[in-house]
């Protein structure tokens, strides 16, 4: 359960207490997720046993809102990445940092965080371990968070729409580094939902690297059963080298009491580099997982994942047992 920190406790000397307590609040929240991992690596380094922050990463955040009247609400969110196994990897506002206004028109925000495209991808990734089922994770073509963003989110009946405009900065030669656009559209019809998403990036995470992605998928859930499938096209051009790949994903889960069983499969065709298909570069990425809820906030997890390539590329497998606690 989130811990509510009423802003009156820290600002009562500066504001009207009654009005502030009624219309504004700040909430602290977070997760601490760690696992014991046995990992067989791509490059022949053998198995490695370690304690690691999971793919569903540990974090601590603060969020709040204030009712402004006439249906308008101001809000903010600051989320910080934590690495309990390695304090040097933690930082302030490393995950999300937003301030915005929402009303009948939708939700407009300024800041940094996950793109509309990345959030659409995560609709199909139901795993928590270090080897998640992120679409096209194998090539590292996906990027998730961006700076200097104007974000719009709107819900209109069965349709949800999100659009990001990354302005970039350090303008030179008439262009700004770090520019991107990202959009997603979700349509829900009873137990069935459809998602389409895409993004275009220019030097968004590294100089001289451009990316283009497209995603189309659907899912269904009823009672204890949920299934989903998607297609993704991903490409990245880095210092003149252009890499492309198509991939296809299917995932499912079944819940019974405190136990949830999960399975997923991601199949990628041959990677293309500067228009030429790379021999034996196709892969099959498979995952099995189980979660057991000890309470509403604490669960045990175990997952086994493999990425199988055709030789001579070495396969990778990961086995994880972990604890996830939300607060």
TrEMBL record:
It comes from Chitinimonas lacunae. Gene3D superfamilies: Porin. This is Porin. It is found in: Cell outer membrane. Residues 9-311 form the Porin domain. Pfam families: Porin_4. Homotrimer. It comes from the Bacteria. Keywords: Cell outer membrane, Ion transport, Membrane, Porin, Signal, Transmembrane, Transmembrane beta strand, Transport. CDD domains: gram_neg_porins. It is a multi-pass membrane protein. Residues 1-21 form the signal peptide.
